[in-house]
Amino acid sequence: MSMLFSKAALAKVARLLIPRVVINGNLNLMARLAFDVSIGPGSVVGRNCSFGGGNVVMNDTEVRSSTLGRYSYIANNSKIRLCEVGAYCSIGDNVRTCLGLHPMNLFSTHPQTFSERPPSGNAWVTQSGFAEHKYVDEAERYVVKIGNDVWVGNNVIIMDGIVIGDGVIIAAGAVVTKNLDAYGVYAGVPAKKIKSRFEQEKINYLLELQWWDKPDQWVIDNIDNIDLMYK
Question: How much is the average pLDDT of 187-200?
Fold first, then answer.
């Protein structure tokens, strides 16, 4: 068999013959076995994902080519792709990353006219003349980097090339088009800073403390003391 068909051809045949639900089920099982992660009904964890432990992917959510730090969770019906997520992050329902880019200065915005991999599957160009994604990490190929202890509300869209600082809160329905400073509260379309969560001295204290990197027992022992330490 291997002499008659290439590995690529066999893989293509397998994708056609094996139901997608079986492929996705196997990937989910691999994620559960390799990491301490709970995956809800209808959700898919794709290849090239890693988890810090204690993670939850709720229902009907898709996670692909992404990393999640310890205890970070993703709620329902979200699509998180090419994203680096820190520890203790709370990501709400219907959150989207990796939307891709379309050119505004070419004669057409449709990928059929500029992409090597258009939705149709039938490319008209051999080399893309436009960067379809903006990466925050070229080596790891992440398009979004989310810090630690970040709360992302429901229905938030995060555009490519965005870095979100530690402790940020993003209000429901926001569209993030620029980098967000640590411990800021952001809302709107496009997202704008409403206020800082704390005075700058306390922000500096929390960024230096980096409690999210501490062992679980340290956090358990100091839950009631972290704010008191600053005071």
Answer: 97
Count Cβ atoms below 10 Å from residue 78 Cβ, excluding itself.
Answer: 25
**Spatial separation of the C-alpha atoms in residues 38 and 203, rounded to whole Å:** 32
Q: How many residues in the chain?
A: 231
**Secondary structure class of 216 (helix, strand, coil):** helix
DSSP-derived 3-state class of residue 137: strand
202: phi then psi, degrees, rounded to nearest 5: -70, -35
Q: What is the pTM of this model?
A: 0.82
Residue 206: HSE in the Cβ half-sphere, 13 Å Cα cutoff: 21
Residue 33 pLDDT > 90, yes or no?
Answer: no
Q: Which residues pair with 38 in a beta bridge?
A: 56
pLDDT of residue 101: 82
Give catalytic status of residue 133 as yes or no.
Answer: no
Tens digit of each residue's pLDDT (9 = 90 or more) over 70-113: 999 999 999 999 999 999 999 999 999 988 888 888 888 898 98
Q: Which of 32, 64, 96, 102 is catalytic?
A: 102
Contact 144, 97 (CB under 8 A): yes
Reported confidence tier of residue 35, pLDDT bands at 50, 70, 90: low
- Write the DSSP symbol of residue 230: H
Beta strands in 58-203 (DSSP E): 62-64, 67-68, 73-74, 79-81, 83-85, 90-91, 144-146, 151-152, 157-158, 162-164, 169-170, 175-176, 184-187, 192-196
Structural domain spans, the chain? 200-231
